[in-house]
Amino acid sequence: MGDVVFTRAGKVSAPPVPQGEVSLQAPPDLPRPTPRPLIQIVLPIVLVVAVVGMVVVMMRTGMMRNPMFLLFPVMMAVSAVGMLAGTLGGGGKTAETDELRKDYLRYLGQTRDTVRGTAAAQRAAALWRHPDPVELPAMVGTARMWERDDDDPDDLTLRVGPGRQSLATPLRVPDTGPVDDLEPVSVVSMRRFVRVHSVVDDLPVALELRAFAALSLDGEVATVRSAVRAMLAGLVLSHGPGRVRVAVAASEGEARRAWEWLKWLPHHEHPVYTDGGGRVRLTEFSLAGVESMLGSEIAERPTFSPSAVQVPGRAHLVLVVDGVGVTGAERILAEDGLDGVTVIEVSGSRAGQLRDLALRRGLCLQVDDDGVARIGTDSGDEDIARVDAMSLPEAERLAMALSRYRPADTVTHADGSTTTRRAPGLPDLLGIGVATLVDPAVAWRRRGERDRLRVPVGVSPDGAPVELDLKEAAHGGMGPHGLCIGATGSGKSEFLRTLVLGLVATHDPDALNLVLVDFKGGATFLGLEPLAHVAAVITNLQAEITMVDRMRDALEGELTRRQEMLRAAGNYANVGEYEAARARGAALDPLPALVIVVDEFTELLSSKPEFAELFLTIGRLGRSLHIHLLLASQRLEEGRLRGLDSHLSYRIALKTFSATESRTVLGVTDAYHLPATPGAGYLKVDAGDPVRFDAAYVSGPYRQDRRLDGSSVATPAARATVRPFTSWYMPVPAPVLPPVDDVALAPPTPADDDSASLLDVLVGRLTGHGRPAHEVWLPPLGEGAPLDVAVGAEPTGAGQAGPGGGPTALRFPLAVVDLPFEQRRATWSVDLSGADGNVAVVGGTRAGKSTTLCTLVLSAAATSEPDRLSVYIVDLGGGLLRSVAPLPHVGGVAQRGDEERIRRTVAEVDAERRRRETAFRESNVTSVEQARRRTVDRDGRPVAEFPDVLLVVDGWQALRTEHEDLEQVVLGLAADGLSYGIHVVLSAARWADLRPALRDALGTRVELRLGDPTDSMIDRRAAMGVPVAPGRGLTRDREHMLVYQPRLDGHIDPGGIADATADAARHLAARWRGRVGDVGAAPVRMLPEVLPYEQVASLARPGPDGGRTRLPLGLDESDLTVAYADLEADPLMLVFGDSECGKTSVLRSLARGLVAGNDPAHAKLIVADYRRSMLGEFDDTHLAGYAATESAFVPMVEHLERILDERMPGPDVTPEELRSRSWWSGPRITLLVDDLDLVITGAGNPLQPLARFLPHARDIGLSVILARRSAGASRTMYDPFVSRIRDLGGAGLIMSGSREEGPLLGGVRPGPLPAGRGRFVTRDGGARLVQTALAKPGPTA
Q1: Which residues pair with residue 1332 across a beta bridge?
Q2: Which pLDDT belongs to residue 709?
Q3: Cβ distance 856 to 839 under 8 Å?
Q4: How many whole angstroms separate alpha carbon 1040 and alpha carbon 1018?
Q5: Which end of the chain has fewer CB within 10 Å, C or N?
Q6: Could you give phi then psi for residue 278, rounded to 5 degrees?
Q7: Rounded CA gap, 692 and 273, in Å?
Q8: CA atoms of 403 and 390, how far apart (whole Å)
Q9: What contacts 40, CB < 8 A, 6 or more positions away?
Q10: What would the pLDDT profile of 737-769 be if each residue is shown by its tens digit?
Q11: CA 114 to CA 102: how far, in whole Å?
């Protein structure tokens, strides 16, 4: 059966739909009751009273004995009864009401006949527009087939089934008075009439496809499939293949067989592809497969919008999804639907996300087993229709009947391929022949001056080619600069692609380079990147507005580069002279013309108005530098060009949004009246008349008489065989070819895939040929680069090669710097050898501060030998710096929570500074450079005597907050450390976190992305443009940089930096160990957790005079030397601490020191020990008194008071005796009080009598050592005796306690500390952390 070209005759008029409305009459009112006269009410009563009175009179007078006298009262009683009955009777009003009711019911009957006629006419009109599926086969081939187009009011409507609809002429209920005043039977009849006749049952219910992105039908699978078949049958019968296209994504099995009938429909055929069965059927295994098959069909469709303007000539796609799942990456789901696409999800599909799409942007129907379709509303489920049903054989018969028809503008060939009349393609206009056979060597033949930069872009209405010449007018061209304006859908992007493709197909890269800029997206120039002509493709600037400044720098740099090239080559005036000299044989590199195409330039200028200055610069210098500018946009606002219009010599106007824009571009409004056909436009040059043209189309699928499997239509076909015709792909039978001895296989081209466009084919043929263009635009920094690209994967020690062969340069690569103006990238290194030896890394949260410090340490370790660099790290950040611990350069890594190691790390570096101060002075070292050259012999090899030391602090604000006393230490290191080769490297979240004195000492400043760009110390405006990415920042020259990733494996993976850094550290450690042995930084020495008193007992030996007052207390944290309690300089001492923290042990060790270092003639002890923890510790030779209770202690205090009174200097003491303290004799008395909180009670302080002797303690040989719990110590400080000791500057040992007690001595607050650890506060030494000696209980030897 051959195809039938269906030409639709005149459209058959549909039955009219009744219009207007029916206004019902109001029900009749009840007759109103009239008030009765008073006489009618009173007269019967009077008569009754009269009768009663008469009867009474007659009975009294005896008249009742005569029967005749009874006649009068009886007559009067009858009259009264008659009057009363007439008064109460209402028979006339009831009859009137009955007549009104009959009239109104008769009116309703007449209106019912009218409404039934209206409903019948409405039903006929509805069934005409949406016929029953049973009637569809009879309409095939008639004038009713494919009758709907874009202008039809029922276009893209889909019948669901019969249902209840409102009457075409609504029934309007009249306004009435109160219901109680209306005749009740009439009111009920009117209500029933309105309820019954205001809706019409079994009318076709239809949905408009344009209003829904997705329809989801849920119910029994067979019922739903039958309903969808009926829907599609009515849709394809009333709409032609050019208006509706049906595609299916179905799984194998029952779902596939349920939609096999669609294979016969012309609506189900691909518009281009063919296979062994003719046109490829639009059936796939997944929704993504359907999208891929229809790639060009839906690629340019915008996001779904119910109010979107319909695109003329574009088919509406209906995608049926049955039994397949979706991934969510499909464009239909990713963009919440597409314009002109409706997805019908059939019950049983696994595509749950389609159900969500239908809930958001479509409609969900619940189909019951009886075929009733319901939708969910706020008030519950609502029935809308009883879905139609169509069996699979009925649907297949209908589809087969439609299969022989084709639209009038389509021709189907014997092999199934189709052709339509078309305008000449770009290859025809360019004269390059078949696109798949283009030879760049031939197409790029040297062109004459006239044809240089001249390309055809389309044809005029009479078919003549329309050419665009980009050369300047002095060389016979239209340029050098131009403007292109076109509204949405006008084909502006396609025109730009056509122009670019025409230029690259006819000019080699030595003659032409391109810079392609798309401000809003990237689809305009997609696929052109592989060409050697392309110097830059810059897209999606709207999403990354900071890239606009980078692009401006790159273009300005290109202007400068070309000028410098002309000057360096011989001071040529312009590129024309340069190329002429090159043609004469001068040894010069090509300097091709540069065409800059900027799409959506008005949006660019709206975001960056200052960019207009660059366009003006290009407009002025472009002629001499052979730089051509083409600006394109959808709109052109008044004043937006800002003086550019004088440089734009040619104008291209496609269809514009308004007549004003057309007049602005062309001087006339013709562009506004262009047909809505993509590519139609005008070309205007200077004062000439606009030239009408239709642009060539290069983005559509390229067809070279090939089937989907790649076989040529012209190839001899195989012998015909009978095969089942299915909806799936059918391979083409292999052709029978004559034997060939040697077959030359042509290289594959993009044309081998029918999805490839003409642009893809030509780009594929031209890619890889010609000299690559100079890169004007380097890609953005992106994720960065590993450190090994700058320092290598193996340690080199290169950082130690200073100028003139010196020992060190301390230059460490840290980051890659983006230099768009210079069109290159460079490595940024930090130089720590001079005044900038201290480093500050400042950045906001997650800006990459810890990564930067890791990179710096790793870079230093890779370029410096372990004996010349030592690194000590305090990591108060996220712990990333722990990964560099294996390096031999790293002496220690202290992390948050390990307060002791943090303090020791800082103290170790500070001790090294003090040691170097002394060593420099003693060795007469005058500079750090001289110190770096000094070496000492260690294990037979020279090593640096004074290696550079880096103190790295990650989290400066945390250090200030958690370790307040270390701030001044680090500040001192930053201020004075560079003179001794000690460097401070720290990180902070804000510059404001660094005090001015510290900030001034940090010469090398690494500024990453800041939380508040206004906090920048480099450039606030530039800081606002730093991308939100780890490691991105600014250099001192305001250039963007990206810190190298601290890894040496050559990979880029932000998620695995910690592991890669640890691997790199272990790798460097192994390599350095193999080269220099076990040389490395000195480890951080730690305070011991327990210091037995026996280790320091020998330091308490007696002096030459047999006495000792300087007693060993423990180890000082700062330099791990012995800390002494000097009772001669500080005879008063307070010890505070929690229980079990070592207070008694301190008293015991001091007492033992006194006993061991003094004979009984020089020292005596008085001990107040209420808890008896030191009972039996001392022999009687040194013990003057031991009190375990208050009753025993008070007499001792009184006795001591008398002794001290005797020692007080009298008036006869000479000055010499005062100086030598020789006016008294006897031992020094040391008063030890443990648990002072038990001694001082509410009754008073037994020690108070001794308060007056405290100022004279040194002179009279008195020492007082008090120990107390830290809980409540702040209150104890107000005790007069204790307060007196504090006022006199007594020493103190503050051990573990609560910070809530506040400052106790010297501004030191107690805090959590290990047992035996405390802060020793003295007047001359300040506050020092010491580990006190542990003196275990036992008698003193």
Answers
A1: 1114
A2: 45
A3: yes
A4: 12
A5: N
A6: 110, -135
A7: 33
A8: 18
A9: 83, 87
A10: 444 433 333 344 444 455 678 888 899 999 999
A11: 19
- Residue the block writes with tokens 């019954």: 196
- Give dist(CA 960, CA 995) in Å, integer: 11
DSSP string for residues in 837-874: -SEEEE--TTSSHHHHHHHHHHHHHHHS-GGGEEEEEE
- 278's tokens: 């003719």
Quick one: pLDDT at residue 84? 65
Position with higher pLDDT, 1302 vs 1325: 1302
Q: Residue 462's closest CA among 421, 424, 502, 409?
A: 424
- Which one of the listed residues 291, 330, 558, 600 is annotated catalytic? 600
Task: Please check whether residue 1272 is in contact with residue 1310, taking contact to mean a CB–CB distance below 8 angstroms.
Answer: no
Q: Is the pLDDT of residue 418 over 80?
A: no
Q: Match 């349920």 to its residue by tokens.
A: 258
Using one digit for the tens of pLDDT, what is the confidence trace for 207-263?
A: 998 889 899 998 899 999 999 999 999 999 999 998 999 999 998 888 888 999 999
For helices 71-88 and 38-61, give the axis angle rounded to 10 degrees: 160
The first and second tokens of residue 135, run together, are: 């009637």
Residue 149: Cβ within 10 Å count: 14
List, in sequence order, every beta strand (DSSP E) within 488-532: 512-518
Residue closest to 1016 by CA, chosen among 1196, 1168, 843:
843
Q: What is the mean pLDDT of residues 798-803?
A: 44
- When pLDDT is cut at 50, 70 and 90, the band that residue 412 belongs to is very low
Output the DSSP codes for 1086-1151: ---S-EETHHHHGGG---TTS---EEEEEEETTT-PEEEEETTT--EEEEEE-TTSSHHHHHHHHH
How would DSSP label each residue in 63-96? Answer: GGGSGGGGHHHHHHHHHHHHHHHHHH--HHHHHH
Per the structure block, which two tokens stand in for 113? 């006949």
DSSP structure class, residue 471: S
With b meaning 16 or more CB within 10 Å and e meaning fewer, what string describes 1121-1134?
Answer: eebbbbbeebbbbb
pLDDT averaged over the chain? 85
Question: Residue 945: how many CA atoms within 13 Å on its side-chain side?
Answer: 17
Closest CA to 323 of 344, 309, 300: 344
Which tokens go with 584? 């004469």
Tell me the pLDDT tens digit for each residue of 1089-1111: 888 988 888 887 665 665 678 88
Q: Are 684 and 653 in contact (CB under 8 A)?
A: yes
Which tokens is 717 given?
């076909």
Residue 19: burial class (beta carbons within 10 Å; 0-12, 13-18, 19+)? exposed
The number of residues making up the chain comes to: 1341
CB atoms near residue 88 (< 10 Å): 8
Q: Where are the beta strands (DSSP E) in 302-402?
A: 316-322, 341-345, 363-367, 372-377, 380-386
> For 476-480, what is the mean pLDDT?
88
HSE of 1299, CA atoms in CB hemisphere, 13 A: 4
Task: Compute the distance between CA of residue 203 and CA of residue 132 in angstroms, rounded to an integer.
Answer: 10
Q: What are phi and psi of 1180, to 5 degrees?
A: -75, -15
The pLDDT of residue 866 is above 60: yes
Q: Is 600 a catalytic residue?
A: yes
415 pLDDT band, cuts 50/70/90, is very low
List the structure tokens of 407: 């639209």
In whole angstroms, how large is the CA radius of gyration of the chain? 52
Tell the residue number behind the tokens 């037979």, with chain if given: 940
